[in-house]
Amino acid sequence: MAIQVSDLSSFCVTALKAAGLNERDARTTAEALVLTDTWGVHTHGTKNLRGYIRRIREGGIHGKAQPHVDSEGLAWAIIDGDGAIGMVASGFAMNVAIEKARQTGIAYVGLHNSCHFGAACVYANLAAARGMIGIAMSNDTPTVAVPGSRQAVLGSNPISYAIPVEGSNAILLDIATSTVAGGKVFAAAAHQQKIPEGWLIDDLGAPTSNPALFPDHATLTPMSGHKGYGIALLIETLSAILTGAAVMKNVLSWSFGDPKVPTNHGAAFIAIDIGAIMVSPLFQGRLQEAIDQLRNAPRAPGCDRIYLPGEKEWEHRKESLTHGLELPPEIIASLHDLAKELSLKWTLY
Amino acid sequence: MAIQVSDLSSFCVTALKAAGLNERDARTTAEALVLTDTWGVHTHGTKNLRGYIRRIREGGIHGKAQPHVDSEGLAWAIIDGDGAIGMVASGFAMNVAIEKARQTGIAYVGLHNSCHFGAACVYANLAAARGMIGIAMSNDTPTVAVPGSRQAVLGSNPISYAIPVEGSNAILLDIATSTVAGGKVFAAAAHQQKIPEGWLIDDLGAPTSNPALFPDHATLTPMSGHKGYGIALLIETLSAILTGAAVMKNVLSWSFGDPKVPTNHGAAFIAIDIGAIMVSPLFQGRLQEAIDQLRNAPRAPGCDRIYLPGEKEWEHRKESLTHGLELPPEIIASLHDLAKELSLKWTLY
Prior knowledge:
The structure is a homodimer. The first copy, chain A, is built from 11 helices and 10 strands. By secondary structure, chain A is of the alpha+beta class. The first copy, chain A, has a domain at 180-218: Wheat Germ Agglutinin (Isolectin 2), domain 1. Chain A has a 7-stranded mixed sheet, with helices on both faces. A 3-stranded antiparallel sheet of chain A has the order 8-7-9, with no helix packed on it. In chain A, a hairpin with a 4-residue loop joins strand 7 and strand 8 (207-208). In chain A, helix 1 (5-18) runs antiparallel to helix 2 and helix 4 (86-104) runs parallel beside helix 5 (121-129). Chain A starts with a helix and ends in an 8-residue tail after the last helix. Chains A and B meet through strand 3, strand 6, helix 7, helix 8 and helix 9 of A and strand 3, strand 6, helix 7, helix 8 and helix 9 of B.
């Protein structure tokens, strides 16, 4: 049954306020999670609300946190997330990057003392909404092998970007640097499906198609081998080594780790002010030329249309806003359990 | 037979000067190409010298070019490469990024009116040599399909980075955003070897293992499908759409295109001044902690050692400097032909 997007947002705000967040932080978090669900990316949306709230109630996420600038220069800043929920700390950090880029053309903002930030492109998209190219990335608790290892060494360290397109939605990419995101393996395990060889290796380093082994007895493989490994290590450097966040195995799992202990995730945000560098109509004309080349490329048999990065997700969002959101039953169940835990009225239908 | 690295450098400088470059530009170019060969990356080293010099002699590369800043702000600049050989224009651009990052913490420098720049990590490494994180990327003439297309739409748009490591060589990654670089397909064709399915699709969009079809009747696949496509489009944006360079199919092939016509490749360079953001010993200690986690990860059967990105290449360079460089015979032959074309004495052995 379809849920109205505004109803889902209200439920999230109510739940987060009941857990101790103020109105503004509850809205920021709810917007991030519901936006992600409307894109159809259910692994990173309200599915995780119950887990985040568990951490808030146990103390591993500070509900009253006040993220702030720790140190800064002309075109950079390091933000102390103060143990905030990842959406609040990350939104704060990207907004600092946007303000600084307005002065200098490009800015880098690193974040420590944060938690899992959900979908990276939520923050990249904040920059695109201000006419800038946004780039967002994060480290995470290790779930991915490196070439030659048989256990997880790096997180699935996602990277995302957004490029504003005049009169349309932003071009938006958000990818894990593992072959697939862990969420897809969990989903296969939940549905008792086999997974393709190449996604996971087992404890002995051999490929396995059994998703139930993950994460205790299997680890994700890096995207394209040494390529994903290399990109993940750059993300670890910009998100954690250079920011003061926990590095690699020192990052606690936000979902499996002790909910009383902060995870100390790190993240990095880059904003590039297009208008400072090239007059906007010229940039948009040149971008449109690239888009036309993509859309008009000769298609392979069976392909009706070539999509821009993020285009399917924006169409899913439009559909969700018009006809409501079809959340998977396990997410509805999780939200229902959360309502009971917080003694909230169940308002979703 | 092994060639002394210094002899190879001298030969390149002599050849480039004979083609009309001044001493400084000839040295810059020779250093880039020979450094690449010493890393063992022969697809992007002196193999291409003859082709670059052909372009210089025909006018498609300006031997007397003077790259210069076209426009700039606090933390960014756009460079007009003036049609220079890619190594000269790109070295100039990265050096501007390094100078600006020293003032602001991070800088973005875009380059237009350049040519093929060889191995991206040559320029990323310039930043690492000054204690900065360097990122370098470029667009190129289309050789790579996007999901759903059956012809090339984007270039193999490489991206590279370098991170300085105290007391050791920089961590260095340099990857094409195609499944494999075109050079590997050409190498397989030259040796009449089949290639794995997944590297190429033919004119009808079907996988092929025949490297001889490339590039006229086959196109490279993007790395990890939509992931490589998405990253390549960001690289196109930062290297070309935002810099004024030719976009996608408007980039001429440096090797197959009319050598009289400039290719107008674009590129982008980012430098991040580590020391401005975190005191260097602290950063290096934290980086070492990450390196230790990588090196000490439990290994898969048959794996003796876990390598850092670039580590194999640096070891190849050390070996080359000590015992000389073993260049593939087709590269020796190409350099020999070049010597004849320029009426140079053959000094390599």
